[in-house]
Specification:
Distance between the termini: 28 Å
Order of helices and strands: HHHHHHHHHHHHHHHHHH
Number of domains: 1
Number of strands: 0
Shape: globular
Helix content: over 70%
Structural class: mainly alpha
Strand content: under 5%
CATH superfamily: MFS general substrate transporter like domains
Length: about 450
Amino acid sequence: MPYALRARRAVRETVSGLPREFWWLWTSTLVNRLGAFVATFMALYLTLDRGYSATYAGLVAALHGLGGVVSSLGGGVMTDRLGRRPTLLIAQSSTAASVALLGFVRDPVAIAGVAFLVGMASNASRPAVQAMMADIVRPEDRIRAFSLNYWAINLGFAVSSMAAGFIAEVSYRAGFLIEAGMTMVCAVLVFLRLPESKPTATVTEAAPRDDSVSLRTVLRDGPFMSVVGLSFLVALIFQQGAVGLPVAMGEAGFTPAEYGMAIAVNGVLIVVLQIPVTRFIEHRDPRRLLVVSSVLAGYGFALTAFAGSLGVIALTVCVWTLAEIVNAPTQTSLVVRLSPVHGRGRYQGMYTMSWSVAALVAPLLSGFVIDRFGAEWLWGLCAVVGTAAGVGYAVLMRRVSAGGQTEGVETEEEAETADGVRALAAGENRETRSGGTL
């Protein structure tokens, strides 16, 4: 019982004190990931069901990533100019329509074109989600909030991966339609439950204008752009779980259901460990966390070269999943700390673009390497990239800490602005500062 009581207390402390708007955003994330299908099974759909080569599958996935590159910056600008809520509604509605269409097109050129549209629509919402979360959650609660959101992503992913693996053996089209329906449910939740959280000039007279932070401002921010570059390397590694791994397993004779079970370990492990690990890392040195997680991710995928059975593959998934659990909230929190309040959309858009570019490059890279040299070379390359990212984080964080740029979470003015935004988001409902369930 003492252990059970401690566990219950830990869960209560983790979920308490967050505003009600956060939990609606969290629910939208969960519903969206419960219906995830395209990103996970696109490679298998094209190679096994449609009979295309790994290179073509990589090209389509790359176009999906290119769409994300375009919409990451566009979604960031929309988030700052139109607001978080309108951007989410436009992005999620467009995603539902394009995903449904993808299930019906058959021409290779049409598949590639619609995949581009899906990537563009689905990635446009990410800057808005991250910016809204930073708006409505207190600075000291952000690592916890980002971890809980990441936990929701992977809870949905764990369930959808196992279910979608079996759905794919019956009908890939059904998977596309299920994802479209679930995404539309997310749009309805946003419309009905989430108020706008965009900071306004009325919050504080000292607040800068919305247009005072441009994309040029972001590009000139050296420390932040260094984080963007390093996050690209890390994302390049993690993308292999959805790109390189299913293709390699398919060529080795594994079925879609077996890949679904293997990759579901990633989601299940995050669901089980994300909350306790977050409590462990919340007040620890972010430089060490980023270095260790980057190296662990690279070598976790490298171990796949020695995996000849489903059980061993699942063990390698456990290794790089631990890196993901540590890296995701730490890196996201660092991005928020380096972003000005009235430029959160553009900064988050640039950060999201690093993952979108990785989604563009990873399929081309993995398809080329697997076709020309074999999967073993791809896993070795992951180790090299992980090591490079770890060294880069060590150098960057030492310079940033020396410059004092991450010593404080927010300036006093930014904290006051965030408080005002939370008050606007809450309206007359004074219970939104309480935690708990919906």
